[in-house]
Structures are given as C-alpha cells and as structure tokens.
Amino acid sequence: MDEALLTAGQIAAQPPHALRMAKALMRQGRDQTFEQILELSAALQALAHQTDDHREGVAAVLEKRPADFTGR
After folding, report:
1. Which residues contact residue 6 at a Cβ distance below 8 angstroms, ignoring those fewer than 6 apart?
2. Burial of residue 30 (number of CB atoms within 10 Å: 0-12, 13-18, 19+)
3. Distance, CA of 27 to CA of 45 (rounded, Å)
C-alpha cells in the first residue's frame, strides 16, 4: 500500500492537462487503429506544448529544480 500511495503521489504531481490527455489517449487506444492513435498522440502533444505547465516543466529541467505545475 505504501508503494501504491507513493506512485499515486508521483502521478498526481504531474501537469493536470497532460494527465487528462494521457488518460484520453489510453481510452481511445482501445477502439482505434495504431495509425489513428499516432495522429491523436501528435495532436495532443502539440496542444500540451502550448500550456504554461509545459513551459514551467522545461524551465524546471533547465534550472535543475522541481516543477511547480499550475494546471494552465
């Protein structure tokens, strides 16, 4: 249980928009072809790159600090 809670905490600390997109991609993956999933993945990635959280994540990596995601 401790490991499950640790994993849940790590997931919850990620950017909310990216998590929603990843969950949507997994749900869609059950009913679509590989090519369709690749297209959807590329589209969602392009959207994710436009978020403030993406910019914060990149800045955090470059500055070697933890990211502070806001959900924007």
Report:
1. none
2. exposed
3. 16
Confidence of residue 29 (pLDDT cuts 50, 70, 90): confident
| Whole-angstrom distance, CA of residue 56 vs CA of residue 13 | 13
Q: How confident is the model at residue 13 (pLDDT cuts 50, 70, 90)?
A: confident
62's CB contacts (< 8 A; 6+ apart) are: none
- Name the amino acid, one letter, at 59: A
Nearest to 36 by CA among 47, 44, 27, 28: 28
Average pLDDT of the residues in 2-15: 91
Tokens of 50: 């436009």
